[in-house]
């Protein structure tokens, strides 16, 4: 999916005020390359390798002198910097990415507060709901589920899905899918060593057989 580039005429004029018209056009092309980079803001090819001087000269039909002059203008205007690997990056674009990351983090935190505030309000006015929740958590804790860890995972999952809500049913469905560390064995009924006629309360095996024949004859 192609992502549109953010463009501010005011910021553009301020950044390129000291550039020649030719260098402005070249810088705009570089901004597009950095926008399309696998690491947005860095001058990298789609395969993750840096754009070399030879690549840029071939792509934009530049001479070595033209490239050197325009690159010097860009560096003099402090439009880009270089990382530890000497890869140029757009300083404004990197600042924008940092602001967007902080904004996303803030939105997630707000969403977490909304999720749990609404659920806490529901429980405060619903003692029966609180009782059911405690019983639910204790039940899954007893079978070895790390309930606290799972609640944290629910919290993170719901933070990215505004259409979903924290409910008792949601918690129940989530915890049911978690595998506990304690296996509850079901006891199998022990087989009796006594003969069937004695277990069923007859005084002798003959009496038991006669009772069975009567049942057969009666169609039972």
What does it look like?
The structure is a single chain. This protein is mainly alpha-helical. The protein is 60% helix and 3% strand. The chain is built from ten helices and two strands; from the N terminus they run H-H-H-H-E-E-H-H-H-H-H-H. Helix 5 packs across helix 7 (147-159) and helix 6 (127-142) packs parallel to helix 8 (168-176). It is elongated. The mean pLDDT is 78.
Task: Please outline the helices and strands.
Elements (H helix, E strand, L loop, with lengths): L8 H7 L5 H15 L17 H8 L3 H13 L3 E3 L5 E3 H34 L2 H16 L4 H13 L8 H9 L19 H4 L5 H13 L3
Helix pairs in contact: 2-4, 5-7, 6-8
List keywords for this structure.
mainly alpha; single chain; 220 residues; Arc Repressor Mutant, subunit A; two-stranded antiparallel ribbon; elongated; 10 helices; 60% helix
CATH hierarchy: architecture of the domain at 9-95? Orthogonal Bundle
Helix content: 55-70%
Task: Report strand %.
Answer: under 5%
Cα Rg:
37 Å
Tell me about the largest β-sheet.
2 strands, antiparallel
Number of strands: 2
Arrangement of strands in the largest sheet: 1-2
Instruction: Report how far the terminal alpha carbons are from each other.
Output: 74 Å
CATH structural class of the domain at 9-95 = Mainly Alpha
């Amino acid at each position: 999916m192609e992502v549109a580039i953010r463009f501010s005429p005011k910021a553009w004029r301020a950044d390129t005020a000291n550039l020649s018209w030719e260098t402005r056009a070249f810088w705009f092309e570089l901004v597009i390359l950095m926008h399309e980079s696998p690491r947005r803001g860095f001058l990298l090819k789609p395969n993750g390798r840096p754009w070399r001087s030879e690549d840029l000269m071939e792509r934009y039909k530049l001479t070595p002198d033209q490239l050197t002059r325009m690159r010097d203008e860009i560096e003099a205007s402090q439009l880009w910097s270089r990382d530890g690997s000497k890869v140029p990056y757009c300083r404004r674009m990197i600042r924008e990415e940092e602001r967007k990351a902080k904004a996303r983090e803030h939105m997630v935190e707000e969403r977490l507060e909304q999720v749990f505030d609404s659920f806490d309000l529901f429980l405060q006015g619903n003692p029966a709901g609180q009782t059911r929740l405690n019983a639910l958590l204790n039940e899954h804790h007893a079978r070895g589920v790390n309930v606290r860890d799972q609640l944290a995972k629910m919290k993170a999952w719901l933070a990215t899905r505004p259409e979903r809500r924290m409910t008792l049913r949601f918690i129940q469905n989530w915890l049911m899918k978690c595998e506990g560390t304690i296996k509850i064995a079901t006891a199998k009924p022990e087989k009796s060593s006594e003969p069937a006629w004695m277990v069923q309360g007859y005084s002798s095996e003959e009496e038991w057989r006669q009772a069975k024949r009567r049942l057969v004859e009666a169609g039972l």
